[in-house]
Amino acid sequence: FFVYVSSVQFACILPLPPLFPPEFCVDPVMFNKSKYEPVKPEGHEGMGTNGRIGFSNGEHSWEESFDLIEILNKVLQEHEVTTQHQNGWLVLNEGFYLRPEILAVQPLEAGGVSTTTTISIAHEQYAPQGLFEYQHAAGDDTNTALASGFKNWADLDLPVLLEAITNHLEACTAMDMQFPAPDQRIRRAVLGPVFYMASREIEIEEDHPFCQCCMLTHSFEAFKDLLASEGFFGIRLLALRNEEGDVSADCRVNGLDNEPGKELLIKYGQTWPDRGFEVRKQYVVVYTRPTNDA
C-alpha cells in the first residue's frame, strides 16, 4: 500500500506498514465473547489504519507517522467512552465496533494538511452488516488534522449512535412512527446535534425557526422507505449556501450517496434567508425500537 501526496510545494510517496499491526491482532482479554466478526460495509473505501507520510517543501524534508486507532481511541477517552482493542477494531461497551481508515492526505498551500478518513461502524444486534461515515478536517500537521476529524465525529455522530441503542436521549431528540396492529412496530429517527455556521446574523421573523428536526422534515420524502423498513440506517444531512446564494448538499445513507435526499436538501437551502455563507450539518439514525422498550 502507498500514500501519495502531491501539490505545488510538497510531494512524496512512501509505503504504509501492514494494515494489521501485531499489537492489534490479538486481544489478550476478550472484550466481546460472541462469535460475531464485523466486516467492512459495502462501498467502504480506505487504505489502512496507520502509515508514514513524507513531505518536502524545497527547503527541507520530513516524515509524519500516524496510527488512526490510537488517535480515535484517545478522542473517545476524552469523551469518556470506554473501548477495547479487538482484531483491528475498537469495541465500545455499548457493543459498537469502530475501525478508522485513511483515505487521503493533502498538503495545503498555506501550510498544514487536510485529511479524509472513514470510520466503519458495526453492531451485532442493530447493524451487523455495518455502515461507515467520512471525516474531513485540516490541521497544522497530519495527526492534528486526523484528531480534529475524529473529534467532530465524536461530537456530532457518536451521540446519535449511542442514544439510539440505549434509548436515553440527552444530546439528541427523536421522532417516532408507530405502525398499526397487528404490526405495532415503532420506527424511531434519532436526530443528532446540528452543526451550524453563518457568516452574518440577521434579524428576521420566521414562522418556524430552524430546529433539530428541520433537516429531516425538509428531506423526508427521500427516506419514507427507510422509515417503513426494518433496517438500521445512518443518514448524513449537509447543506451549504455560499455568499452568492448557490446551494450544494451532501446526503448519504450508511455512507453511500443518496441523490433524492441531496436534491431535497438543495431545495431546502434555497429557502434560507440570506446570511451569507451558511452551512447546516446533522447525523440521523433510523431504527426499530425493541418491542420490550418502554
Basic shape: globular
Summarize the main sheet: 7 strands, antiparallel
Q: How far apart, in Å, are the first and last alpha carbons? A: 49 Å
Number of strands: 16
Order of helices and strands: EEEEHEEEEEHHEEEHHEEEHE
Helix content: 10-25%
Strand content: 35-45%
Query: How many helices does DSSP assign?
Result: 6
Structural class by sheet pairing and helices: alpha+beta
Mean pLDDT: 85
The parts where pLDDT drops under 50 for at least 5 residues are 1-32
Rg over C-alpha atoms, rounded to the nearest angstrom: 21 Å
Structural features, described:
- The structure is a single chain.
- 33% of the residues are buried.
- With 294 residues, the protein is of the alpha+beta class.
- The strands form four sheets. Strands 10, 11, 12, 13, 14, 15 and 16 form a seven-stranded antiparallel β-sheet that branches.
- It is 19% helix and 38% strand.
- Strand 8 and strand 9 form a beta hairpin.
- The radius of gyration is 21 Å and the shape is globular.
- The chain contains six helices and 16 strands.
